[in-house]
Amino acid sequence: MAKVLVVTSGKGGVGKTTTTAALGAALAQSGKNVVVVDFDVGLRNLDLIMGAERRVVFDLINVVQGDAKLPQALIRDKRIDTLSLLPASQTRDKDALTEEGVARVIAELREKFDWVVCDSPAGIEKGATLSMRHADAAVIVTNPEVSSVRDSDRIIGLLDSKTLRAETGGRIEKHLLLTRYDPARAARGEMLKVDDVIEILSVPLLGIIPDSEEVLRASNLGAPVTLANPTSPPARAYFEAARRLMGETIDVTVPSEKRGLIGRLFGRKVVA
Amino acid sequence: MALVVAPEPPLDEWLAELDEQMQRSANFFAQRPVLVDLSALAGQEAAFPALLDRLEASGLRLIGVEGADPATLGSETWARPPLLGTGRPDRGIEVPDDPQKPAAAPEPTALLHEGPVRSGQFIISERGELTVIGSVASGAEVIAGGSLHIYGTLRGRAVAGLLGRPGARIFCRRLEAELVAIGGLYKTADDIDPRLRGRAVQIWLEGDVMMMEALD
Question: What global pTM score does this model have?
Fold first, then answer.
């Protein structure tokens, strides 16, 4: 039975697209058939992160409007053959999305894939609400700082009211993913503590992704961080998160700061 | 068979009881032809015309009068021979009450909200109390006509005593509110005593002053 997962946050720039790509690749690497769908019409980024920007012919809007069939728009990843991308349009905007069109596309994707991972745009308008409408589960991406937490709370309220599942009396599975976690700043009190974020949002924790240059490096290379550098701390955290999504119980470890002797001498730190 | 009503002294009381019965059993009396038996009121003939007018005015459909001399009845309408001659009422009857209309559902006076109130949501219990089992997020609003009870952290905006009820209070397990208001008076986070932040607090009005006190 296919599962539709929406990666959302409310706030912009917290790591939704990075997470969609990383989780999608991690799920595909474990053998599942995965499609990642970009719902950020007009400001598409998922194709860049996936390294597919030079192969986009048809997009989500073309399929919604019936100008192209779904197989024509799907782009298979060159590195993992169970991973595909449905890109967004760059020349249109969110008004081109229709409820019936999106419903049709999601239904067709459910037949072909095990996981349909939807990359939500920032905000609470049509693009965001349509991306979450058909979701069975949600990953709420949050940075440990006050504005991101408040926006995430808003989006959680929408998940509990604007999704088909919520409207028909069901519940949507919600997972909190803390991204850009910097243990040094948390220790200094410059960032919210993990416990505080969980207490405010009251959503189970899926994982903590440490802040890392690896993420930027991977996106510049056009690859999800779990493919570009699978042993880096953020990639390992994403792999664990993917396993938790698939039902495994793994304890969440808070990334900590480890300073070796050399680090103390030269003032550099290694984040474990 | 016609329905016979037989007024008895004291007349005022009897008339009051009749009105009451007619209210309870409006359907029974509607359009039912009625005879008035005045034999119990012998000696009060002067009052008969007024009495008959009064009975008609209450809505009884009078078709005849018994037990009285037609000459005393006053108006032309009543100077007719009674339809049943000297017939006796054959039995008293219980007038059935109208079937009870099902009582309208009582207006809700207390609203219970389980779970957190998320940012951007607002919960309102216009006339009554509001109880939230969970926290109220920053950017959320909880509004009650009566008192507000929050079994969690209040981070958003809380308004009690919406319709001007003076005794309304706000209770919360942890006060981190952005704004609290009772009746028309409000305080923003800046004006709340910093010693109360993070504690269980109750808030109420004494006259024109908002009082806040820790509960622990």
Answer: 0.73
